[in-house]
User: Fold these one by one.
Assistant:
Number 1:
Amino acid sequence: MLSQLEQKSPVLVEVRIEVPWSRVNEQLEKAYRSVQKTARIRGFRPGKAPRSVIKQLVGKSVQQEVAASLVEESLGAAVDEHSLQLVAVPRLDQPKVVDGEPLRFTAEIEVRPKIEQVNLEGLTAKRPVQTVGDETVEQELQQLRERQAEISTPEPPRPAAEGDVVTLDLEVEVEGQPRPEFGSQDLQTQVGSDDLLPAIAALIPGAAVDEQRDTDFVFPDDHSSEELRGKSALFRVRIKAIQERVLPELDDEFAKDLEVDSLEALRQQIRERRQKYLDDQSERAVRDALFDALVANNPIEVPPSMVEREVQRALAELQRLQSMLGQALPSSDFFGEAAMERAQRSVKLSLLLARLAEQENMDVDEAAIEARLGEIAEQSGKHPAKVRAEYQGEARAQLANQILHQQLVELLLKRATIEDVPAGTETEAEEAKPDTDTGSDTSNADSDAG
């Protein structure tokens, strides 16, 4: 077999292959003998039909099978000979067998780009720094109070006020005709919320139990229901019950109800939790900025098939999350040029991280995996043996990839210059830069870095 390689681009090669007639003929003879042994042809005993008859009946299909087999065999040998890293199924025309002639065909193959050296020189990033303020702590305390609020009937009775929970009956007339399908019985709403039409909500504040109020309304011309567009209506509400939300006192007893020793300890707990969240956000921002700098520092061409697969992976993940959350699809921009840019960035990043791991001779040993399994066991409260049993095969390989990914991030942090800046100012110099989706980039980098 002869093969010639032509580099069309950093990610595309053309391989021209020629299989000598002697090899083709050898495979044809082998195939015909196999068919001849098992063929059942009228007028001949099994295995006794002449070769000429066999060729006449099944010659075309035998030639096609032999050609397909030789293409697979010779293409695999050429890939090994030229040390090609395929990223997609090669494109080729299936050649035909011609008596006495070599089998010739050409294959276009997408390959990983050769990255000689990942350049880490001059990497910089800004770390947004933010401290939890007293106002943030007090806001969360207020939210906790509201979640612990008790509902009770005001004594003495009074009209409905902001924050009250009101039970009411709603009647609707359209063009003077009652429309019970638009009304409701025993409807509960909180005064000041936006769960009712503004015209209806405006009737409730100041109304007393058993009081009835109504208002005229004209449906807008662009109303979602064509039947109601431009028509006049009457909304009538009758207040059936008023309940107020009584907030607990903000004291040590309140904290103890939440299983915290004191109010000050609760404040400190909130502050520490919030600060950890901000610190985690900051570290993610640094990581993503370093990833951007790494990609900018090392311009490479990426195979179109890898980009397309990343687009499809990201969209499938998005659809899965939306299905779980019951959310609508995002704007069409997400599926167009922006999606392609995110995918290209993600593929570039994964290729660079994989090459960087090779360049730095980074690997994840069993000790590192066992240490991480120990952490997982401690955090989950599971027995270490149970955790080890859960992380076998693919799950263990994914864990090793995560560890390697974290090691690569730590390497970039060591090699880069990191500047702490107040949160909100780290991107001022980059406002013109296209937005990137670091979520898909990171997951892809995790899988390819190993």
Number 2:
Amino acid sequence: MKLSGLYAITTPSQYLPQQVEAAIAGGARVIQYRDKSSHQSLRFQQARQLSLICRAAKIPLIINDDVELAARVSAAGVHLGRDDIALKNARGDLGDDAIIGVSCYNDFDLAVQAQQLGADYIAFGSFFASPTKPLAAKADRALLQRAKQELEIPVVAIGGITPDNGKLLIEAGADMLAVISALFTQADVEQASRSFAQLFSEEEQ
């Protein structure tokens, strides 16, 4: 499976299944379930719902940070940050077919290491001011240009991305745009998703 296009990252909502269905209808190509709460039963219930939705749509569901939850709901994979389980251990728990992504912030050496350890994709950011992570390290487009030349795995750009600034990152080398606020806090999630998906269609023309 080629990883490219809109990478939709959820934010807590009572309408999460409907929002994810709308994001997929609009053109999202990957869904990440992200919920930092300690409400384990709710997280399991929601992740299981999203796993069924994504499987029906043939869209990979990635679980943020939680390898155990990814395994329990038969998700496609997991996304790991700096303080999470080691990639090697996640691979051992989830198997060779799992999609494992790694946050590399603004550190190219981290990305090289992640690729060497078997990551399926890496993520750089934050490229713009982000309401989700206002104190996140800032990344620049030169990282994407270098990654396109030197890395062999897909690259995700994240952080404050909108339909207005996203094309700059695709042109610089991003294979996927990871979006939270500009997608899941919008009144019309499907239309917001379509606006991002269109950026990739324009790049292919």
Number 3:
Amino acid sequence: MNETSKKRVVSGMRPTGKLHLGNYVGALANWVKLQDTHECFFFIADWHALTTDYADPSQVGSNSYEVALDWLAAGLDPERTTMFVQSHVPQHAELHLLFSMITPLGWLERVPTYKEQQQNLDTKDLSTYGFLGYPVLQSADITIYKADFVPVGQDQVAHVELTREIVRRFNNFYPGKNGAVILPEPHPLLTPTPKLPGTDGRKMSKSYDNYILLSDPEPVIRQKLKTMVTDPARVRRTDPGNPDVCPVGDLHKIFSDGTTLEKVYAGCRSAGIGCIECKGWAADNLIKTLAPMQERRKQYEQNPKQVRDIIAAGDARARASAESTMTEVRNAMGLSQDFEPPQQAAGKTP
């Protein structure tokens, strides 16, 4: 498949430091696959991090570097994917500003995650324009590369729909030459998101301190899994269990092969195996999955210049693509750098 014939996907990830299994299963593993079928633009969303963590941005730079390491370790290929840092492409901010001029306030206030995050992050003051307006910045992130698709889970479809509404409004106000559409409407690319619980059974999150990092060494992984909650029906070793309601069973479904799964189902339901043995099998398969990633990560850790060069090259490619779009946007909005005096009335000499 030629690069020019591939549909383009764009997505980003906030820099929270080293990535955990939830980040991998929920997004990164799918991104690696998309490289084979799509033209990919993936960015580290450092400006988005400031919408909630503006009071202390001291770790944004180092966290961004850790994310880049994990992306490369997981298999994102700089020869096939444009990886870059959001703030290194100032055109994102310019399009965000222009979009903010045409986005009705009510559209932002009805975004499902707006009030939800304010409640969940009630220890932070999120009554800022940056937090209210982050979906507009997100829309700029997507459309500045004229994305065909945005890989998202079902819970993020509303954000893509808001982007489509903003794009429609923009194209209505500012058609290109001969009425041409400047910004295409992106579509959500629904991605399967297997259920991956944290060690306490809740959604894996650094906020809950229930996560397993992609870079955790083997002893740490085994220790974390030893403490993982299991089927509450298995109070005693002799009690039968059900892998379908057990967080460890969910891990097996993602990382274990068919033979191991058969042993897990048969042994758990008959009480033929204990939870400790089952957790050990899960650890074996998880460690086997992560081993090649951790080896690649070590190689990149030993050559930080290579990592910086990869991101710098991605920044440059992203800026070139973004500037091409912004040239069209500025012209359509009458904001080109060339300006002319008013047209003289017909027949009159200036």
